[in-house]
Amino acid sequence: MAKEIERKFLVKDNSFTLLTSEKRHLRQAYLSVVPESTVRVRVCDGQGWITIKGRNSGAVRDEWEYPVPVTDAEEMACSLAGGWAIDKTRHIVMYEGFRWEVDVFHGRHAGLIVAEVELPDASVEPPLPPFIGEEVTGDPAYYNSVLSKRQ
Q1: pTM, two decimal places
Q2: Number of Cβ atoms within 10 Å of the Cβ of 61
Q3: pLDDT, mean over the chain
Q4: For this structure, is 66 an active site residue?
Q5: CB-based contacts of 122: which residues, under 8 Å, 6+ apart?
Q6: b or e along 45-56 (b: 16 or more beta carbons within 10 Å of the residue's beta carbon)?
Q7: Judging by beta carbons within 10 Å of its beta carbon (0-12, 13-18, 19+), is residue 35 exposed, middle or buried?
Q8: Averaged pLDDT, 111-125
Q9: Coil, strand or helix: which one is 26?
Q10: What is the phi/psi pair of residue 18, to 5°?
Q11: Which residues contact 63 (CB under 8 A, 6 or more apart)?
């Protein structure tokens, strides 16, 4: 079983765009939003993925992720989840040895920008880039699965 250890922050300005090394377009749909077993289907740059995540315990949770054919991912999103609930552009920013993923949301979540950093251990304190604002790690309001239910 894999563990995901990440911290999440709101982004206070667009200075991250100057540090972006790559960008990706992501669409996500949720087949289950039960906190004990969230199931997400995603399409990113022409590849499909299915991801199962357990309940958060602070910055740590169980996670399994598998590639699926993009046509299957699209069919699952449309047939089982009512379409794509999350549409965002992910900016990859390397900062002092840490890889930050800055998600700029589109559509009904336009204006929301969230940054995440994956950590090797929950006790690690990464240096914060200048664009980082309030920490929202563990705040369900900023889980993509919760955002997916908001209109």
Answers
A1: 0.92
A2: 17
A3: 94
A4: no
A5: 5, 58, 59, 60
A6: eeebbbeebbeb
A7: middle
A8: 94
A9: strand
A10: -75, -20
A11: 2, 3, 4, 51, 52, 53, 54
Catalytic residue among 30, 66, 95, 143: 30
- Looking at residue 58, its pLDDT comes to 78
Tokens of 103: 């998600």
End-to-end CA distance of the chain: 33
What letter represents residue 120's amino acid? P
Q: How far is CA 17 from CA 55, 107, 115, 142, in A?
A: 32, 20, 12, 21
- For the purposes of burial, counting CB atoms within 10 Å of the CB of 63, is it exposed (0-12), middle (13-18) or buried (19 or more)? middle
As a residue count, the chain comes to 151
Tokens of 98: 């840490």
Question: At 61, which amino acid appears?
Answer: R
Model pLDDT for residues 48-90, shown as the tens digit of each residue: 999 999 887 778 889 999 999 999 999 999 999 999 999 999 9
